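Working notes for the structural subgroup meeting. M.R. asked for a predicted model of this chain before we commit to crystallization trials. I am recording the input and output together here so anyone reviewing the notebook later can reproduce the run.

Input as submitted:
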Amino acid sequence: MAPSMSLHSVVAILILTTDSPPDSARLFAKYYNPPHTNATQQPTQASQQPYTSLKEQKAFEKGLLEKTAKQTSDVILYDNKVVVFKMESDVMLYVVGSAEENEILLYNVVLALRDTLSILLKNSTDKRTIMENYDLVTLAIDEIVDDGIVLETDPVMVASRVSKAPAQDAPNMKNIDLSEQGIQNLWEFGKKQGMEFVRRNL
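Returned structure, recorded in token form:
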């Protein structure tokens, strides 16, 4: 059998909390479908998203959380999927790939996710902080993986693309005088600059 030449390598990215019941442990879940299949091939079970309904996804997540709670390694095979995960405070970060997928690639994705969240959330990757900064978390995941295709694994690059603009880059409105005298001074300054520009160009 020929190896798959698709760039689609991530089936799902999950962030689950460990301090809630397994039925309500989901903080973030994104399942990816392969963008396209070969026209000459029949779609196989591996090429289609196996967890199409919310009920199937919740059952998968519940079983995954129960299985990884007792694990000491970071890579497991669960439900015919390669799952790499990292524990951070009270949350678990999961990257799920097909059974044929390269574990090292998936492990680099979960490390990039962990390190990016650590940078963005200032070393406070927990349930409360993730919920308060949910926009940054979703943007970071979209920068790392798009449609199941790994785009970037450098956490510094991802964090720089996602993070908010620094406050010092915003214009400083405190030094602008909006009184009547300030507006008069601004008008005089503009008139003087305009006259000087016209004089130089004649």
